[in-house]
Amino acid sequence: MQAVRERLTVAVRARSVSNPDHIQIRPASSTVRVVLPPELASARSDNQRSSWEWTYDHVFGGESSQEKIFDETVAPVVDAVLRGYNGTVLCFGQTGSGKTYTHTGSMSQFAQRGVAPRAIARVFSHAASQPQYETLVTASYLEIYNDTLVDLLTELPGPGPESLSLVDCESSTTVRGLRAVAVADEAAALEVLFTGERRRSVSCHQLNDRSSRGHAVFTLSMEFRSRVESSGRVTRAKLVFVDLAGSERLKKTQTSGCLRGESVYINQSLTHLDQVVVAAAVSRGHVPYRRSKLTHLLRDAIGGNSKTLLIANMSGQAAHLEETIATLEFAARARAV
Ligand SMILES: Nc1ncnc2c1ncn2[C@@H]1O[C@H](COP(=O)(O)OP(=O)(O)OP(=O)(O)O)[C@@H](O)[C@H]1O
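# adenosine-5'-triphosphate complex -> structure
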């Protein structure tokens, strides 16, 4: 792996905008402007603001296709991985804002497929165009559910499930015991992705009838070996997709019982993620990555040598303005890392 640290790239994607007076998506200038309506502004204390404007690396409105999102944001990360760098794509945002749609998309409509299946296609088409290299790819799929590591691929043939643990390597963190399945072609890699997708913890609540209850981490690990050079040099690289569980207000999701416990964990782990992002942005010293399994696992993506893209998904609905502001503020903090 080579060092590639650049500023973390941040893209904002709005699902749809219900009230352009209050939410203005401006792809041409890569900005988003939010103006609170008077009734919300007056409910905030005097020293709080009522309008904001943020600049990101990319901004997409509700009309942007899955293809456009992939081509403009994720394809450069995949291409860096194919040159031997590590890459991470993180989908973040409020529950129901479109994170899983961005990550996986529709399993039945080809044009609606998300960034992970498109990345798989790009990896294997690149491998086919480079016969001078042997490309070996393995896939793994992990879920962090209530701070427990769960292997989503244990139903595939292979050794039985082991208990999983995080292990620090030189600059990144790996998961000991996680199954890595060799995938020879695009179809095999998609099969692994969709097997894991089907096994994710999902529940129905007021804002999403298939809400992810854990953070999902899909990883393609690659080895490139020259068939023509005798040195036998091997380049290794990793492409990681993280579909985070959505932040949620308990009042809005109207969850109770188990679901409520999951929500509390989800919100807490996202708060830890925010704290780690702030620490990584302001300090070159200690960053509390070990605060949760999620931040520990994302050490390389946040403060290491991974080429990292954050896609901040926002609903764009006036009813969720406060959550949208929280998402956009997090995305702005991440851009400072
Ligand atoms: N840009 C979009 N275009 C069309 N449909 C979308 C778009 N974004 C999201 N959807 C649809 O909205 C619903 C909720 O989206 P999704 O499940 O991706 O949200 P999420 O952010 O992953 O939510 P959660 O955090 O609760 O898991 C899904 O039915 C999805 O297909």
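# post-check
The mean pLDDT is 89.
The two ends are 21 Å apart (CA to CA).
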